[in-house]
Design brief:
Two copies of one chain form a homodimer. By secondary structure, chain A is α+β, with helices and mostly antiparallel strands. Chain A has two domains: about 300 residues, Beta-galactosidase, Chain A, domain 5 (Distorted Sandwich); about 375 residues, Glycosyltransferase (Alpha/alpha barrel), CATH 1.50.10. Helices cover about 30% and strands about 25% of the residues of chain A. The longest helix of chain A has 23 residues. Chain A starts with 11 loop residues before the first strand and ends with a helix. At the A-B interface, strand 21, helix 14 and helix 15 of A face strand 21, helix 14 and helix 15 of B. Chains A, B: This is Maltose phosphorylase. Chains A, B: Belongs to the glycosyl hydrolase 65 family. Chains A, B: One of its GO terms (biological process) is carbohydrate metabolic process.
Chain lengths: ~775, ~775
């Protein structure tokens, strides 16, 4: 853990000194996004120290030629990357002709805050450039109201001189990815223009040999000043366009510019209209004016918080953590565009940046189900349905039937190239189907199965049926050569989670086919499933081998797991953690240490199939070996820990999840935020502390309260009912803010919730005080 | 199988038409080497079609920066490569000023032969260049007598014209490796010179960030002509030096040049003396003259054959195969230099080229023990002893004690970067110790253990002791996370071969320490082995888990092997083989198919520990699943097949070994020859058909004769006795050519061999006629 910002505020991330050593970490944390585009917390003005300047546009990607040491049959030819794109925030500032370089100027009273309530990043500082002191105030936001718009206001006050301030706002698309495999640039210049107070750059992703889509983007800027400039010139060249605005300034006077930028792309517009469209936006917005544009944006954020905010009383760190997670998650994705998905680093970094992983289905979908209109979640499902053909091709490449969804993708094609992941971490396929179950079960929108879901359900079942093999001696079906969610074990046999999920997928497919047949639905025929195939699926699922140890009475993570040397994390000598930075890979692999929930991921997914005692036995066995070196791990453990009344552990793991990036737990936040695991904090509170479960079309709560909290509350959207859940030291209050009643189970008791229910909180004394 | 050259000769490889489509394959097969240096069968003159020009110098290597998709802790920073070096054979030929380009000229009566008896490559052809016909004869050899010398004689006869022939012999060190990771050149120019009939180029391997040795090489040439030139000019520039010699020619006249090249390097000389040393060689050799130099070279080859030749009667393909293998093996290594080793592709290609693998100890050492003075084999052991410190460092990097010899190396540092191989294919470590056992047991030179061997034996034992773990439940030591010799199974647990070898290494260490203690030898103390450590080794070895299946009564290759889907190779549908070109990697891994001997490798190493029945059961079980997609596989299977009287299978596998490259079995010979597996044919005949075993300081034979052979014979050097073994359809004759008697067991009967023994051949009728 390494907390950079110690000034903790419930709604703000506050940085109260300029950061040189950890600037990249600060840049990650101060990231902004509006779903359409996003950027790291870079400075507008010149900064000549270490920095990772990065801005990214959703859905714009480039297929970077695979780099690999030793080629394995089946590897994809490219790894898709979100290209670091046009620097549109750039504003160089000159004080009497001397450039303001934050790395070199004497900077006093630096203050930066990310206002999460309003989605606004502001900065204030005093800088001394050769004796001339100025006070700068900078405000930036990416509009949630007008997605293609970013706005910056840059104010300078002269503290001890009369003279001139020069602002050079610019656009620069000569930008490279730090993670480019062969140090290539991904952009080519199309055109640039500049005029007084205007300028644009148009760039296109380079042609590639893989025949994937080429994208063109246009960045267009319009500049306003608070007084008439003394000089106003402009210039453009390849990849670059600037304005140069010189303003007279007197001591104690404030001069400012507003930079409006519109980013349009060929994802939404014809290439020929990109400039025109961006001009329209700039015209509309500049006419509205800064205050209006800012207010519209803030109102949109406020509305999101109204339905999604989680309040925690008595624990500012926890409160800030959950809000930061929701803020960054919503900054990445708010479901407006079914062509988009949620990249593990969102718009905040490059490694894994922007591609789609199973994280979306496993960790993010439940949050959107809970806090956003159901269309948001449905769009995530449609995204995968749209890519079914590619998943079928992918399975075929590996000599298998049905569909195998890729580990990492943009357009449905597999990008990743580690055999133990790409070819073997196939449990991901189960999560795609589980998401259909989860969505339809939660929302009641079973029409989705008829319309689209069944196609995915059938093809994934076909995959599993071809991927298992019959062990004739034992007359059981097995799945060899897989990597489970715990990636600290590669190429194992019979990973319980994978086998269980495969078995479930087959049964779920059979049940859905039967249901559709009963309802005489045409979509059955669409997929040509015959009786023989159904019987085969049933045979496999009924004879699926699920490793279990009778003596310990626990599920076994995979064959041979119990043959390992079993050492607990707490017994490891100091200096060994994190393992992934201290141990060679083979040592990690043969060790018993678990990177992220594996058996417990299964118990989480199928929480209604296992008793509390079973969960407790397995949690107590596996948790001591778990190092949580995946950001996706602690939330799941925290949820199970709550359920088995281990509240202390649950709280410890919640903290790790909720402040993963703010406290840089994994020592890698400088590369970007862990966006998909941002959902974990929400899950930990709602499904963990509040014990919300929605299996079998029912809604259950079993709220608990961590000892050091005074209370917490959140809203939840369940089947078009908006509920408010409030928990404090005394009682649990659930209010129904919609006008129809709903059945709710609380602590196992059934209630008909009309207006509200208040019952005393159930406290497990043994464990809460442990 | 794809045989390029159909004209089969016992002593020659004959190519009787020019090859355009498969030129790279032809170049590989026509490779020449003299242990010091070697080259592919490229043409001297211009050839503008596809070709891989390659010449390599033993021990000269460059650390090429690692290329990897996903970095794993513990990966080495570089992969050592033998840099493709100076093109010293180049001679451009002009006919009346028109260049002779073999890719474009009309070429008639092309004939090339590799004379293996004499180590000479010759070519003859008629070429028509714009109506001017010439007949060319080209002879090339790399002197075995004078290792730094290469000689070419190029003769041209005018068939239908009077005019002029221009020869432009040149040296060119502007050469790149095809397998360079980042398309970098490995050479920088130091100096070049030229003068009438002379020229040299000096180049140095580029500085590297890994602080490995930098090498400088000098190529110096001296040209002789058979008549006074009409013109003689010269030129040099960076990386390049040439002479231009114009000779008048009349119809039916023959003009010729001799190009002598000396290659000196900083491995043997001070950089300042490289040119001088090479001039000395050129002076000496040109004074001797072409015929003398050639004869000295041929005599040296003839002498090698006198002791090493294997004669096969009645099977020209087999005869050519075994000679080709010995020829290429000796061209790569004949033990003159303990700093050198045997690269898997020798001097014939780049991939894996020139580095040291466990192949040397496992497959090559026995051949040198049998056919070369014992110093040759001893040098191979000393090579590893010299690298012990680096092996200790290597183990340390992986968090382990003792020494782990690298998978791939030049100077002892690990080069390879696939976790499943680099970190997990640790059985290689056992072969380093087994080689000490093999060498000392075969030669009787136990002094070697005292002098050097014990250091390696102890450190490898320490490695195993730290690499095992105790499975407390079963109270057995296990080795998890390994890759056995069968690389079609990665990251398995308890590979029987690895566990057995580890157990043996520990016991062998204990026995040697005890022996040294008894003899009161100081080298015990040198390694600080105390009683407690010895006891630990004994405890581990006595409780080592060795997977066995009682029901099938076979050794189990590794945990879970028998859970696989067991399909026999013969039952695979057509088009699946070779698997490594048709299946995705995960499919290969989870299949039961075996790339190379694994359990059987252990039964081969420890042939005296297993009964014929045990071998038969295990062979019969594993052979049907073996695809032999490693060149190192068929020989071991062939040897066991002989022992269990499956002569038909033994012969089939022998053919595959002996003609692997000549018949391009693995469809990759264009990349270079499989040098280390060249030993397999010798092993198959001597240890297989002739049944030679040398366990426990005894010498045993049990000769068998493949049905279609009339007989075979070979010499063997055993403890300074030179024996001749002759086998024909009637009897087995073993002659002792030294002047002391020796005990020999033949078919299990003990004999005292004075002069010779002749006994009838034992024929297993059932199997020989199968």
């Amino acid at each position: 853990m390494r907390r950079l910002f110690d000034n903790i505020n419930e709604w703000k991330i506050i940085q109260d000194k300029i950061e040189f050593d950890e600037n990249r970490l600060a840049e990650s944390i101060m990231s902004l996004g509006n779903g359409y585009m996003g950027m790291r917390g870079n400075y507008e003005e010149t900064y000549t120290n270490d920095s990772h300047r990065g801005s990214y546009i959703g859905g714009i990607w480039y297929p970077d030629k695979t780099r690999v040491g030793w080629w394995k049959n089946g590897y994809p030819n490219y790894f898709g990357k979100v290209p670091n794109s046009v620097n549109y925030i750039g504003i160089d500032v000159y004080i009497n002709g001397e450039i303001l370089d934050l790395a070199k100027a004497k900077v006093i009273d630096f203050y930066r805050e990310l206002d999460m309530k309003n989605g606004v990043l502001t900065r204030k500082f005093v800088a001394d450039v050769n004796g001339k002191k100025i006070e700068a105030s900078v405000t930036r936001f990416l509009s949630v109201k007008t997605k293609e718009l970013g706005v910056i206001k840059y104010e300078v006050k002269a503290l001890n001189f009369d003279g001139e301030i020069t602002f050079t706002p610019y656009l620069d698309s000569d930008v490279k990815n730090e993670d480019s495999n062969y140090e290539e640039a991904f952009w080519v210049n199309v055109s640039t223009e500049s005029s007084e107070k205007y300028g644009n750059v148009v760039a296109r992703t380079k042609d590639n040999p893989f025949n994937t889509e080429v994208f063109t983007i246009c960045a267009n800027m319009s500049i306003k000043t608070n007084k008439e400039p003394k000089e106003n010139t402009y210039m453009n060249k390849e990849y670059y366009s600037e304005n140069k605005i010189v303003l007279d300034i007197k001591k104690d006077e404030t001069v400012s510019i507003e930079k409006y930028v519109a980013i349009t792309t060929t994802r939404d517009h014809n290439e020929a209209h990109l400039i025109e469209k961006s001009e329209e936006i700039l015209n509309d917005q500049t006419i509205k004016g800064y205050e209006t544009v800012l207010n519209e944006h803030m109102n949109a954020w406020n509305k999101r918080w109204e339905s999604a905010d989680i309040k925690i009383e008595g624990d500012t760190l926890a409160q800030q953590g959950i809000r930061y997670n929701l803020f960054q998650l919503f900054s990445t994705y708010y479901g407006e565009d079914a062509r988009l998905n949620i990249g593990p680093k969102g718009f905040t970094g490059e490694k894994y940046g922007g591609a789609t992983y199973w994280d979306t289905e496993a960790y993010c979908l439940p949050v959107y189900l809970g806090v956003a209109p159901k269309e948001v979640s449905r769009n995530l499902l449609v995204y995968r349905h749209n890519q079914l053909d590619k998943a079928i091709e992918n399975a075929k490449k590996l000599g298998l039937n049905g569909a195998l969804y890729p580990m990492v993708t943009f357009n449905g094609e597999e990008c990743h190239n580690e055999w133990e992941i790409t070819f073997e971490e196939i449990h991901r396929n189960g999560s795609i189907v589980y998401a259909i179950y989860n969505y339809t079960n939660y929302t009641g929108d079973f029409e989705y199965i008829k319309e689209k879901g069944i196609d995915v359900i059938v093809e994934v079942a076909r995959f599993w049926a071809s991927r298992v093999h019959l062990n004739k001696r034992r007359n059981l079906y097995m799945i060899h050569g897989v990597t489970g969610p715990n990636e600290y074990d590669n190429n194992v046999n019979n990973n319980w989670y994978t086998n269980y999920l495969a078995k479930w997928c087959l049964e779920y497919a059979v049940n859905n086919i039967k249901w559709l047949e009963k309802e005489n639905i045409q979509s059955v025929n669409r997929n040509n499933v015959d009786k023989k195939e159904l019987e085969n699926w049933l045979k496999i699922s009924s004879k699926m081998y699920l490793p279990y140890d009778e003596e310990l009475d626990i599920i076994v993570q995979h064959d041979d797991f119990l043959d390992k040397e079993l050492i607990k994390v707490k017994d490891l000598p100091k200096g060994n953690l994190p393992l992934n930075q201290n141990w060679s890979w083979d040592k990690i692999l043969r060790s018993c240490f678990i990177k992220q929930a594996d058996v417990l991921q299964g118990m989480y997914y199928f929480g209604n199939k296992f008793s509390k005692e079973e969960k407790k036995r397995n949690f107590d066995f596996y948790e001591p070996y778990t190092v949580h070196e995946s950001s996706l791990s602690p939330s799941i453990y925290s949820i199970i820990a709550c359920e088995i009344d281990n509240l202390e552990k649950a709280y410890e793991l919640y903290s790790r999840t909720a402040r993963l990036d703010l406290d840089n737990y994994n020592n890698d936040t400088e590369d970007g935020l862990h966006i998909t695991s941002m959902s974990g904090a929400w899950l930990s509170i709602v499904q963990g502390f509040a014990g919300m479960q929605t299996f079998e079309q029912s809604l259950k709560f079993a709220p608990k309260l961590p000892q050091n909290w005074d209370g917490y509350s959140f809203n939840i959207n369940y089947r078009d009912n908006l509920l408010k859940v409030e928990v404090n030291k005394e009682d649990v209050k659930i209010s129904n803010m919609s006008n129809k009643s709903i059945n709710v189970s609380i602590y196992g008791e059934e209630y008909k919730l009309e207006d509200k229910i208040v019952i005393p909180i159930e406290v497990n004394k043994n464990l809460c005080n442990a």
